[in-house]
């Protein structure tokens, strides 16, 4: 069938019309799609910018709170309030559009069509709320309780984990949006290409189609330019943040070349941005010697060579993603700055490192405050401990009758002064202990000790405190021995804290029950009181510093609120754990657990303990507790170490496991006649020559009973005893010659301390005082001494210099006992026979230690 020309033209026009219609429809569909894709691209740019702003606000808020906590300057706090827009506080101008809460809500609206991003926002919101509560609590603590409490809360709270979680979620948000942006840009480009093809066809077919396409493409390009303009505005926001930040912010590429260097960095380091950007790495700012030392440490730690310079700074960052530490930075003018610097790796969507971000702040002021604190602690240690030792010692001597009988009113006043001097000593020691523990400077002398023996000593040492509160300490259960590794002095401090705490909160007439038990591989000490129990709301804070369940109750019972906090830290430092159980109205049980020694170690410890006691103790065998207390005080004042037995059975057990220089014996014991014990001692080859002093109301009767069997008995004393006769008898038993007293050199510049020590040792040793290093060296060159008691702080130098001088002497130097307000280092402890800290040790303990060392020296010389 053939069509005419007219028909062909008509058909052609119809076909052209149909083709133009189809092209127009396709072009309209693609143009609409192009418009929508362009809108999505613009939207995605805006979302990415909003995420950046939100992240910058969170970091800025965190830095502001930390600065406020450290410095207390309210401008940092107000800046934080402005960012958070917390009602009730004056808002100050910020460089942000909206608060953190506003921007989070805006992101929710902008991502409403993206379920994956909504899920991430659901994760982010509670994290931001948790961080906000943390920062608000820091502000409250800093405003109401001060720097120390706020700092402890920040140290104890794992805020770093919260911030890491926030950063991870926001990184995922950014990554998701960037991937979405790449996808939408690709789709937009494809749409543009398709449109161009349609436009070309439409141009060939119809000029009108070209005009329409031109119009639509122009509109699309306009929108693209608008998106780029928005991106530039986002960059301007970021630049505003960098300019306003109070910290030095430096960003580099993966090679370390700086591309961002904010005004705070210019001000802090003295180099301009023009001098640094594109030319230098941050290594220029570091102290080169410090970088070299750090590189050597990292080389050993990581097991491969770490180059000096920028590689040293980023070595840990490449492994862990972040590294924060203190550095010394060098200003352009040569001034050295202590700086806290945080370096973070910058990564792309695939996780590849594309650069590094360093945020640094000057901690010169913080370091100055630390130095001031250390100087204050040093002043407290020396300027308070030394006079307190003199005050307490002098009052103790007066109260003990060293200056004769006093009027009743004077005795009462001296008693009040002595009691409060003891209280002040405890407060000073608690404060210094807290500082040492928290700064990591506390030194523990770990050794094998018998907990059972130490518990008995602790109960005896705190007996007077229990009587003051009208309670009794009762050792309900304890194995014969329970060996563990600990610092004996610090362990005694722990037990004293637990015992005094139990006595303080127990009702009058009650008992404090003490137990020592083996629990699996541990040894447990328990102290049970029958007090009111611990209020439920206070239990979680019982071991915190200055914690007080009831301030009024604490006032009634005295105390600083530091004892249990110190106790917990000491137990944990000695590899133990501490806990408690409590019931309201019925009392509490505090307990600690420490690893028990293996059986073979325990046996060795028993042998060592026996050796230590050979020349050191007198055993008092007496059933009357008042007489025991009297004899013990009397003999300790005379320079003897004392052990006690309330029954013959206990005496027999102690004679089997210990060595004594002598025993005092009451003949009328509840479980038998003391004469029988004398005969047993004389029949035992191991102790047959042990000196015995009978102190008994039946002394004459016992003397007649034994008759010719009384070999080795030093004396028979009839109650009531003559104290001087007893001391002379025991000194004869221990071969101490009253006419030839041991000579002791006391190197001490405080005349009050020297006088107190001389009074306490009156009749037991000859004290020569040297107030300086020069005088001490002169005395050592002229005569020999049985012992040197040395203060570490002297007017013409450190006591350590005298230790070095002693090592140069041709003859063997006398042993040295450190008696100082300053703590001795482990190196110094290794060079001396003992270390006592002023005010921490009682005057009785000081005298006992001095006489014990003198006896050891005398025994060694006789053996030689």
Topology of helices and strands:
Layout: H1 5-71, H2 74-84, H3 100-110, H4 115-144, H5 147-156, H6 159-205, H7 207-244, E1 248-253, E2 258-261, H8 263-269, H9 273-276, H10 288-302, H11 310-320, E3 322-330, E4 336-347, E5 353-362, H12 364-399, H13 408-439, E6 447-450, H14 451-461, H15 463-468, E7 472-477, E8 483-486, H16 488-504, E9 511-519, E10 522-528, H17 551-557, H18 563-573, E11 577-583, E12 587-595, H19 599-613, E13 617-621, H20 625-637, E14 641-645, H21 648-657, E15 662-665, E16 668-669, E17 672-673, H22 674-683, E18 692-696, H23 699-706, E19 713-718, H24 723-733, E20 743-747, H25 751-760, E21 766-770, H26 773-782, E22 787-790, E23 793-794, E24 797-798, H27 799-806, E25 816-820, H28 826-829, E26 834-837, H29 843-863
Parallel strand pairs: 7-9, 13-14, 13-15, 15-18, 18-19, 20-21, 20-22, 22-25, 25-26
Antiparallel strand pairs: 1-2, 1-5, 3-4, 4-5, 6-8, 9-10, 10-12, 11-12, 16-17, 23-24
Helix pairs in contact: 1-2, 1-3, 1-4, 1-6, 1-7, 4-5, 4-6, 6-7, 10-11, 12-13, 12-25, 13-18, 14-16, 16-18
């Amino acid at each position: 069938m053939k069509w005419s020309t007219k028909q062909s033209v008509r058909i052609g026009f119809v076909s052209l019309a149909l083709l133009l219609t189809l092209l127009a429809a396709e072009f309209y569909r693609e143009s609409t799609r192009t418009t929508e894709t362009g809108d999505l691209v613009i939207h995605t740019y805006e979302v990415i910018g909003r995420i950046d702003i939100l992240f910058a606000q969170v970091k800025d808020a965190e830095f502001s709170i930390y600065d406020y906590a450290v410095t207390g300057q309210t401008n940092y706090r107000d800046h934080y309030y402005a960012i958070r827009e917390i009602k009730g506080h004056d808002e100050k101008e910020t460089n942000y559009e909206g608060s953190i809460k506003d921007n989070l809500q805006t992101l929710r609206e902008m991502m409403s069509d993206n379920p994956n991003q909504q899920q991430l926002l659901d994760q982010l919101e509670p994290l931001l709320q948790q961080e906000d509560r943390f920062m608000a609590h820091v502000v409250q603590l800093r405003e109401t309780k001060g720097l120390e409490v706020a700092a402890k809360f920040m140290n104890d709270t794992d805020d770093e984990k919260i911030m890491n979680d926030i950063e991870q979620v926001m990184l995922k948000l950014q990554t998701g949006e960037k991937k979405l942006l790449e996808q939408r840009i690709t789709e937009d480009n494809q749409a543009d290409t398709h449109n161009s093809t349609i436009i070309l066809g439409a141009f060939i077919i119809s000029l009108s189609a070209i005009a329409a396409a031109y119009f639509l493409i122009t509109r699309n390009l306009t929108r693209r330019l608008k998106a780029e303009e928005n991106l530039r505005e986002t960059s301007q926001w970021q630049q505003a943040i960098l300019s306003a930040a109070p910290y030095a912010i430096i960003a580099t590429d993966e090679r370390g070349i700086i591309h961002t260097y904010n005004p705070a960095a210019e001000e802090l380091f003295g180099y301009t941005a023009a001098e640094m950007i594109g030319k230098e790495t941050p290594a220029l700012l570091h102290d080169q010697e410090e970088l070299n030392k750090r590189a050597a440490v990292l080389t050993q730690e990581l097991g491969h060579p770490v180059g000096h310079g920028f590689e040293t700074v980023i070595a840990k960052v490449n492994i862990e993603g972040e590294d924060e530490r203190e550095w010394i930075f060098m200003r352009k003018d040569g001034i050295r700055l202590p700086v806290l610097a945080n370096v973070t790796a910058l990564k792309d969507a695939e996780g590849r490192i594309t650069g590094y971000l360093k945020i640094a702040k000057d901690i010169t002021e913080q370091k100055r405050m630390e130095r001031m604190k250390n100087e204050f602690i040093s002043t407290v240690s020396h300027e308070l401990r030394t006079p307190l030792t003199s005050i307490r010692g002098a009052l103790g001597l007066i109260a003990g009758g060293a200056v004769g009988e006093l009027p009743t009113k004077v005795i009462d006043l001296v008693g009040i002064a002595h009691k409060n001097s003891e209280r002040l000593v405890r407060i000073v020691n608690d404060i210094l202990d807290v500082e040492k523990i928290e700064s990591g400077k506390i030194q523990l002398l770990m050794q094998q000790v018998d907990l059972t023996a130490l518990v008995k000593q602790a109960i005896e040492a705190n007996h007077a405190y229990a009587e003051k509160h009208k309670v009794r300490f009762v050792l309900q259960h304890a194995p014969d021995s329970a060996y563990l590794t600990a610092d004996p002095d610090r362990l005694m401090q722990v037990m004293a804290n637990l015992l005094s705490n139990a006595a303080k909160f127990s009702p009058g007439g009650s008992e404090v029950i003490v137990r020592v038990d083996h629990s699996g591989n541990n040894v447990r000490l328990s102290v049970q009181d029958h007090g009111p129990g611990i209020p439920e709301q206070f239990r979680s804070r019982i071991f915190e510093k200055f914690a007080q369940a009831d301030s009024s109750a604490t006032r009634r019972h005295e105390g600083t609120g530091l004892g249990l906090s110190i106790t917990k830290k000491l137990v944990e430092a000695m590899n133990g754990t501490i806990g408690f159980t409590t019931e309201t109205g019925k009392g509490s049980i505090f307990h600690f657990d420490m690893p028990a020694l293996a059986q073979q170690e325990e046996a060795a410890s028993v042998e060592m303990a026996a050796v230590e006691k050979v020349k050191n103790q007198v055993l008092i065998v007496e059933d009357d507790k008042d007489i025991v207390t009297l004899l013990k005080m009397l003999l300790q004042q005379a320079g003897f170490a004392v052990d006690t037995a309330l029954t013959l059975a206990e005496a027999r057990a102690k004679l089997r496991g210990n060595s004594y220089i002598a025993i005092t014996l009451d003949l009328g014991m509840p479980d038998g006649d003391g004469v029988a014990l004398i005969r047993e001692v004389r029949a035992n080859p191991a102790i047959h020559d042990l000196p015995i002093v009978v102190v008994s109301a039946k002394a004459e009767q016992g003397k007649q009973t034994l008759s010719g069997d009384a070999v080795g008995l030093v004396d028979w004393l009839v109650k009531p005893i003559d104290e001087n006769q007893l001391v002379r008898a025991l000194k004869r038993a221990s071969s101490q010659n009253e006419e030839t007293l041991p000579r002791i050199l006391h190197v001490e510049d405080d005349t009050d301390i020297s006088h107190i020590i001389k009074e306490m040792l009156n009749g037991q040793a000859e004290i020569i005082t040297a107030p300086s290093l020069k005088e001490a060296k002169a005395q050592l060159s002229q005569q020999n001494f049985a012992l040197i008691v040395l203060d570490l702080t002297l007017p013409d130098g450190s006591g350590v210099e005298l230790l070095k001088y002693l090592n140069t002497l041709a003859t063997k130097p006398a042993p040295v006992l450190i008696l100082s307000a300053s703590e001795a280092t482990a190196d110094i402890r290794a060079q001396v026979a003992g270390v006592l800290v002023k005010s921490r040790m009682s005057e009785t303990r000081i005298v006992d230690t001095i006489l014990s060392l003198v006896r050891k020296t005398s025994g060694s010389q006789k053996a030689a």
